[in-house]
Hints:
The protein is of the alpha+beta class. 41% of the residues lie in helices and 17% in strands.
Amino acid sequence: MPMHPPRVASYAPSDTKDSFLFCPVTPSRLVCNIPVVYSTFAPQALIHWIREHYDIDPPHVCRFWHRGLSDVYLLESASQSYILRICHHHWRTGSEIDFELNLLSFLASHQLPVSSPLRTKDDHLSLGIQAPEGERYAALFPMAPGNVVVGDLNISQSWVLGEVVAKLHHIGHGFTPIAHRFVLDLDYLLDQSLQAITGFLRHQPQDWHYLLETCAGIRTQLESLPMEAPYWGICWGDPHSGNVHFTPTNQPTLFDFDQCGYGWRAFDLAKFLQVALQTGLSRTVREAFVQGYQSFIPLTNLEYKCLQPLVQTAYIWSWAIQVTTLTIQDYSRLDSHYFTKRLERLRHLGSADLQLF
Protein backbone atom coordinates (compact mmCIF):
# COMPACT_ATOMS: atom_id res chain seq x y z
CA MET A 1 0.00 0.00 0.00
CA PRO A 2 1.64 3.34 -1.01
CA MET A 3 2.22 5.84 1.72
CA HIS A 4 3.30 9.43 1.28
CA PRO A 5 5.20 11.42 3.88
CA PRO A 6 2.82 13.38 6.11
CA ARG A 7 2.13 16.85 4.80
CA VAL A 8 2.31 19.82 7.10
CA ALA A 9 -1.21 21.16 7.35
CA SER A 10 -2.46 24.72 7.48
CA TYR A 11 -3.26 26.74 10.59
CA ALA A 12 0.42 26.76 11.56
CA PRO A 13 1.45 29.45 14.06
CA SER A 14 4.74 31.26 13.70
CA ASP A 15 7.85 29.42 14.86
CA THR A 16 8.88 29.83 18.46
CA LYS A 17 12.46 30.75 19.26
CA ASP A 18 14.52 28.79 21.77
CA SER A 19 15.38 31.96 23.67
CA PHE A 20 13.23 34.60 25.32
CA LEU A 21 12.24 37.57 23.17
CA PHE A 22 11.22 40.64 25.13
CA CYS A 23 9.09 43.01 23.14
CA PRO A 24 8.25 46.38 24.69
CA VAL A 25 4.56 47.22 24.52
CA THR A 26 4.32 50.13 26.93
CA PRO A 27 6.95 51.75 29.16
CA SER A 28 5.59 49.71 32.09
CA ARG A 29 5.00 46.28 30.47
CA LEU A 30 6.94 43.67 28.49
CA VAL A 31 5.50 40.81 26.45
CA CYS A 32 7.62 37.69 26.79
CA ASN A 33 7.74 35.04 24.05
CA ILE A 34 8.55 31.83 26.00
CA PRO A 35 9.13 28.41 24.38
CA VAL A 36 6.19 26.01 24.72
CA VAL A 37 6.38 22.40 25.94
CA TYR A 38 2.76 21.39 25.35
CA SER A 39 -0.13 23.16 23.64
CA THR A 40 -3.83 22.38 23.07
CA PHE A 41 -5.55 22.99 19.76
CA ALA A 42 -8.90 24.77 19.80
CA PRO A 43 -11.72 22.33 18.92
CA GLN A 44 -13.62 24.82 16.79
CA ALA A 45 -10.56 25.45 14.60
CA LEU A 46 -10.15 21.71 14.12
CA ILE A 47 -13.64 21.48 12.61
CA HIS A 48 -12.59 23.78 9.77
CA TRP A 49 -9.27 21.95 9.42
CA ILE A 50 -11.02 18.58 9.08
CA ARG A 51 -13.43 19.94 6.49
CA GLU A 52 -10.50 21.25 4.47
CA HIS A 53 -8.48 18.03 4.46
CA TYR A 54 -10.99 15.14 4.64
CA ASP A 55 -13.80 14.17 2.29
CA ILE A 56 -16.29 13.13 4.96
CA ASP A 57 -19.72 14.21 6.10
CA PRO A 58 -18.76 17.63 7.54
CA PRO A 59 -18.57 17.55 11.34
CA HIS A 60 -20.52 20.20 13.19
CA VAL A 61 -19.29 19.46 16.73
CA CYS A 62 -15.75 18.90 18.04
CA ARG A 63 -14.99 18.20 21.68
CA PHE A 64 -11.70 17.67 23.46
CA TRP A 65 -12.33 14.09 24.55
CA HIS A 66 -9.27 12.75 26.32
CA ARG A 67 -5.68 13.66 27.15
CA GLY A 68 -3.32 10.71 27.31
CA LEU A 69 -0.23 10.01 25.25
CA SER A 70 -2.09 11.88 22.53
CA ASP A 71 -4.84 14.47 22.50
CA VAL A 72 -8.10 12.85 21.41
CA TYR A 73 -11.02 14.82 19.99
CA LEU A 74 -14.54 13.58 19.32
CA LEU A 75 -16.11 14.93 16.13
CA GLU A 76 -19.76 14.47 15.24
CA SER A 77 -21.47 14.91 11.91
CA ALA A 78 -25.08 14.34 10.94
CA SER A 79 -24.37 10.71 10.02
CA GLN A 80 -21.28 9.55 11.93
CA SER A 81 -18.85 10.19 14.76
CA TYR A 82 -15.08 10.34 14.36
CA ILE A 83 -12.00 10.30 16.55
CA LEU A 84 -9.20 12.74 15.79
CA ARG A 85 -5.93 11.80 17.46
CA ILE A 86 -3.12 14.35 17.66
CA CYS A 87 0.08 12.87 19.05
CA HIS A 88 2.17 14.83 21.50
CA HIS A 89 5.37 16.28 20.11
CA HIS A 90 7.52 14.33 22.61
CA TRP A 91 5.81 10.97 22.08
CA ARG A 92 6.10 9.80 18.47
CA THR A 93 8.01 10.75 15.32
CA GLY A 94 6.41 10.98 11.91
CA SER A 95 7.98 7.71 10.71
CA GLU A 96 6.81 5.85 13.82
CA ILE A 97 3.27 7.09 13.26
CA ASP A 98 3.46 6.12 9.58
CA PHE A 99 4.37 2.58 10.65
CA GLU A 100 1.39 2.36 13.00
CA LEU A 101 -1.15 3.74 10.52
CA ASN A 102 0.08 1.54 7.67
CA LEU A 103 -0.10 -1.47 9.98
CA LEU A 104 -3.70 -0.67 10.90
CA SER A 105 -4.63 -0.31 7.23
CA PHE A 106 -2.95 -3.63 6.48
CA LEU A 107 -4.72 -5.44 9.33
CA ALA A 108 -8.09 -3.99 8.31
CA SER A 109 -7.52 -5.10 4.71
CA HIS A 110 -7.14 -8.64 6.08
CA GLN A 111 -10.50 -8.42 7.86
CA LEU A 112 -9.06 -7.97 11.34
CA PRO A 113 -11.46 -5.87 13.46
CA VAL A 114 -9.32 -2.78 14.02
CA SER A 115 -10.14 0.91 13.78
CA SER A 116 -8.36 1.90 10.57
CA PRO A 117 -7.34 5.51 9.77
CA LEU A 118 -9.12 7.48 7.08
CA ARG A 119 -7.18 8.94 4.16
CA THR A 120 -7.15 12.63 3.40
CA LYS A 121 -8.27 14.18 0.13
CA ASP A 122 -4.59 14.01 -0.92
CA ASP A 123 -4.33 10.32 0.06
CA HIS A 124 -2.37 10.75 3.32
CA LEU A 125 -2.94 8.73 6.47
CA SER A 126 -1.61 11.48 8.72
CA LEU A 127 -1.05 15.21 8.61
CA GLY A 128 1.55 17.28 10.38
CA ILE A 129 0.43 20.35 12.31
CA GLN A 130 2.98 22.94 13.35
CA ALA A 131 2.37 23.54 17.06
CA PRO A 132 4.30 26.06 19.19
CA GLU A 133 6.38 23.20 20.65
CA GLY A 134 7.10 21.62 17.28
CA GLU A 135 5.42 19.44 14.67
CA ARG A 136 2.65 17.12 15.83
CA TYR A 137 0.87 14.47 13.76
CA ALA A 138 -2.87 13.99 13.42
CA ALA A 139 -4.89 11.02 12.20
CA LEU A 140 -8.65 10.66 11.79
CA PHE A 141 -10.55 7.45 12.57
CA PRO A 142 -14.22 6.50 12.36
CA MET A 143 -15.61 5.90 15.83
CA ALA A 144 -15.26 2.20 16.66
CA PRO A 145 -18.69 0.52 16.89
CA GLY A 146 -19.84 -0.45 20.36
CA ASN A 147 -18.39 0.77 23.62
CA VAL A 148 -15.73 0.06 26.21
CA VAL A 149 -17.21 -2.60 28.48
CA VAL A 150 -18.70 -1.18 31.68
CA GLY A 151 -17.29 -3.02 34.69
CA ASP A 152 -14.59 -4.66 32.54
CA LEU A 153 -14.56 -7.80 30.40
CA ASN A 154 -16.56 -10.93 31.06
CA ILE A 155 -15.23 -14.40 30.28
CA SER A 156 -16.68 -14.53 26.74
CA GLN A 157 -15.34 -11.10 25.80
CA SER A 158 -11.91 -11.89 27.20
CA TRP A 159 -11.77 -15.13 25.21
CA VAL A 160 -12.72 -13.29 22.02
CA LEU A 161 -10.10 -10.62 22.63
CA GLY A 162 -7.41 -13.25 23.15
CA GLU A 163 -8.36 -14.97 19.90
CA VAL A 164 -8.23 -11.68 17.97
CA VAL A 165 -4.78 -10.86 19.36
CA ALA A 166 -3.56 -14.27 18.16
CA LYS A 167 -4.96 -13.58 14.69
CA LEU A 168 -3.26 -10.18 14.74
CA HIS A 169 0.08 -11.88 15.40
CA HIS A 170 -0.53 -14.40 12.63
CA ILE A 171 -1.60 -11.82 10.04
CA GLY A 172 1.18 -9.45 11.12
CA HIS A 173 3.85 -11.79 9.78
CA GLY A 174 2.76 -10.73 6.29
CA PHE A 175 3.16 -7.00 6.96
CA THR A 176 5.95 -5.22 5.07
CA PRO A 177 6.77 -1.90 6.76
CA ILE A 178 7.81 1.12 4.72
CA ALA A 179 8.60 3.31 7.72
CA HIS A 180 10.76 2.94 10.80
CA ARG A 181 9.37 1.60 14.06
CA PHE A 182 11.15 0.80 17.29
CA VAL A 183 11.41 -2.79 18.44
CA LEU A 184 9.99 -3.88 21.76
CA ASP A 185 13.25 -5.45 22.89
CA LEU A 186 14.86 -5.27 26.32
CA ASP A 187 17.13 -2.37 25.37
CA TYR A 188 14.01 -0.31 24.73
CA LEU A 189 11.61 -1.77 27.29
CA LEU A 190 14.06 -2.02 30.20
CA ASP A 191 17.19 0.07 29.63
CA GLN A 192 15.43 3.20 28.39
CA SER A 193 12.74 2.77 31.05
CA LEU A 194 15.41 2.61 33.75
CA GLN A 195 16.83 5.90 32.55
CA ALA A 196 13.41 7.52 33.01
CA ILE A 197 12.83 6.09 36.51
CA THR A 198 16.13 5.76 38.37
CA GLY A 199 16.85 9.49 38.44
CA PHE A 200 13.96 9.84 40.89
CA LEU A 201 15.46 7.20 43.20
CA ARG A 202 18.87 8.80 43.72
CA HIS A 203 18.04 9.51 47.38
CA GLN A 204 16.66 5.98 47.87
CA PRO A 205 19.72 3.74 47.28
CA GLN A 206 18.00 0.52 48.41
CA ASP A 207 15.14 1.03 45.96
CA TRP A 208 17.58 2.05 43.24
CA HIS A 209 19.59 -1.15 43.69
CA TYR A 210 16.42 -3.25 43.85
CA LEU A 211 15.23 -1.90 40.52
CA LEU A 212 18.61 -2.49 38.86
CA GLU A 213 18.83 -6.04 40.24
CA THR A 214 15.25 -6.79 39.17
CA CYS A 215 15.94 -5.69 35.61
CA ALA A 216 19.14 -7.73 35.51
CA GLY A 217 17.18 -10.78 36.68
CA ILE A 218 14.53 -10.21 34.02
CA ARG A 219 17.23 -10.11 31.35
CA THR A 220 18.64 -13.39 32.56
CA GLN A 221 15.23 -15.05 32.43
CA LEU A 222 14.42 -13.76 28.95
CA GLU A 223 17.76 -14.24 27.23
CA SER A 224 16.67 -17.65 25.91
CA LEU A 225 13.52 -16.29 24.21
CA PRO A 226 14.29 -16.11 20.45
CA MET A 227 13.91 -12.80 18.62
CA GLU A 228 12.71 -14.56 15.47
CA ALA A 229 9.51 -16.02 14.06
CA PRO A 230 7.26 -17.49 15.29
CA TYR A 231 8.14 -16.05 18.71
CA TRP A 232 8.88 -12.59 17.33
CA GLY A 233 6.77 -10.38 15.08
CA ILE A 234 4.21 -7.58 15.05
CA CYS A 235 2.88 -6.70 18.51
CA TRP A 236 -0.03 -4.46 19.47
CA GLY A 237 1.90 -3.33 22.53
CA ASP A 238 -1.12 -2.29 24.59
CA PRO A 239 -3.90 -4.92 24.62
CA HIS A 240 -6.38 -4.36 27.42
CA SER A 241 -10.08 -3.83 27.94
CA GLY A 242 -9.84 -0.04 27.61
CA ASN A 243 -8.55 -0.30 24.05
CA VAL A 244 -11.38 -2.33 22.54
CA HIS A 245 -15.06 -1.64 21.91
CA PHE A 246 -17.61 -4.44 22.04
CA THR A 247 -21.01 -4.37 20.38
CA PRO A 248 -24.06 -5.86 22.18
CA THR A 249 -23.35 -9.11 20.29
CA ASN A 250 -19.72 -9.14 21.56
CA GLN A 251 -18.14 -8.14 18.25
CA PRO A 252 -14.84 -6.38 19.08
CA THR A 253 -13.02 -3.49 17.43
CA LEU A 254 -9.41 -2.86 18.52
CA PHE A 255 -7.84 0.60 18.63
CA ASP A 256 -4.98 2.60 20.17
CA PHE A 257 -1.93 1.07 18.49
CA ASP A 258 0.55 3.84 19.23
CA GLN A 259 2.67 1.43 21.29
CA CYS A 260 2.90 -1.16 18.51
CA GLY A 261 6.16 -2.46 17.12
CA TYR A 262 8.15 -5.63 16.65
CA GLY A 263 8.40 -7.80 19.73
CA TRP A 264 7.71 -11.15 21.34
CA ARG A 265 4.15 -12.31 20.78
CA ALA A 266 4.14 -13.42 24.44
CA PHE A 267 4.73 -9.79 25.41
CA ASP A 268 1.22 -8.89 24.23
CA LEU A 269 -0.21 -11.56 26.53
CA ALA A 270 1.99 -10.28 29.35
CA LYS A 271 0.83 -6.70 28.80
CA PHE A 272 -2.80 -7.78 28.98
CA LEU A 273 -2.12 -9.74 32.18
CA GLN A 274 -0.18 -6.84 33.71
CA VAL A 275 -3.03 -4.40 33.19
CA ALA A 276 -5.61 -7.00 34.24
CA LEU A 277 -3.77 -7.67 37.52
CA GLN A 278 -3.38 -3.97 38.17
CA THR A 279 -7.10 -3.27 37.61
CA GLY A 280 -8.30 -6.31 39.55
CA LEU A 281 -9.65 -8.39 36.67
CA SER A 282 -10.61 -11.82 37.99
CA ARG A 283 -8.42 -14.85 37.45
CA THR A 284 -11.09 -16.64 35.40
CA VAL A 285 -11.32 -13.70 33.01
CA ARG A 286 -7.52 -13.53 32.69
CA GLU A 287 -7.45 -17.25 32.01
CA ALA A 288 -10.13 -16.87 29.30
CA PHE A 289 -7.89 -14.40 27.43
CA VAL A 290 -5.02 -16.90 27.37
CA GLN A 291 -7.37 -19.72 26.34
CA GLY A 292 -8.81 -17.61 23.51
CA TYR A 293 -5.30 -16.84 22.29
CA GLN A 294 -4.30 -20.50 22.40
CA SER A 295 -7.38 -21.55 20.46
CA PHE A 296 -5.57 -20.04 17.47
CA ILE A 297 -1.86 -20.04 18.45
CA PRO A 298 -0.65 -22.48 21.10
CA LEU A 299 2.08 -21.08 23.36
CA THR A 300 5.30 -23.01 23.80
CA ASN A 301 6.60 -24.13 27.20
CA LEU A 302 9.36 -21.53 26.88
CA GLU A 303 6.79 -18.75 26.41
CA TYR A 304 4.85 -19.93 29.46
CA LYS A 305 8.06 -19.82 31.46
CA CYS A 306 8.78 -16.27 30.30
CA LEU A 307 5.32 -14.79 30.95
CA GLN A 308 6.04 -13.56 34.50
CA PRO A 309 9.27 -11.70 33.65
CA LEU A 310 7.49 -10.27 30.62
CA VAL A 311 4.67 -9.06 32.90
CA GLN A 312 7.32 -7.32 35.03
CA THR A 313 8.83 -5.83 31.88
CA ALA A 314 5.45 -4.53 30.73
CA TYR A 315 4.92 -2.91 34.12
CA ILE A 316 8.33 -1.20 34.14
CA TRP A 317 7.77 0.09 30.61
CA SER A 318 4.30 1.45 31.45
CA TRP A 319 5.72 3.04 34.60
CA ALA A 320 8.46 4.81 32.64
CA ILE A 321 5.97 6.12 30.06
CA GLN A 322 3.84 7.52 32.86
CA VAL A 323 6.84 9.14 34.57
CA THR A 324 7.88 10.82 31.32
CA THR A 325 4.33 12.11 30.76
CA LEU A 326 3.95 13.36 34.33
CA THR A 327 7.18 15.36 34.14
CA ILE A 328 5.42 17.41 31.45
CA GLN A 329 1.80 17.41 32.61
CA ASP A 330 1.65 16.85 36.39
CA TYR A 331 5.02 16.76 38.16
CA SER A 332 3.31 17.11 41.55
CA ARG A 333 2.32 13.43 41.43
CA LEU A 334 5.95 12.27 41.33
CA ASP A 335 6.43 12.24 45.10
CA SER A 336 7.89 9.54 47.34
CA HIS A 337 4.48 7.90 47.80
CA TYR A 338 4.13 7.49 44.04
CA PHE A 339 7.41 5.57 43.75
CA THR A 340 6.84 3.56 46.93
CA LYS A 341 3.50 2.26 45.64
CA ARG A 342 4.92 1.31 42.28
CA LEU A 343 7.90 -0.47 43.76
CA GLU A 344 5.48 -2.45 45.94
CA ARG A 345 3.54 -3.43 42.85
CA LEU A 346 6.72 -4.49 41.05
CA ARG A 347 7.71 -6.67 44.01
CA HIS A 348 4.29 -8.30 43.92
CA LEU A 349 4.62 -9.04 40.19
CA GLY A 350 7.94 -10.74 40.86
CA SER A 351 6.77 -12.89 43.77
CA ALA A 352 6.99 -16.68 43.53
CA ASP A 353 3.33 -17.16 44.46
CA LEU A 354 1.92 -14.81 41.81
CA GLN A 355 -0.92 -16.41 39.85
CA LEU A 356 -1.10 -14.89 36.40
CA PHE A 357 -4.16 -16.90 35.33
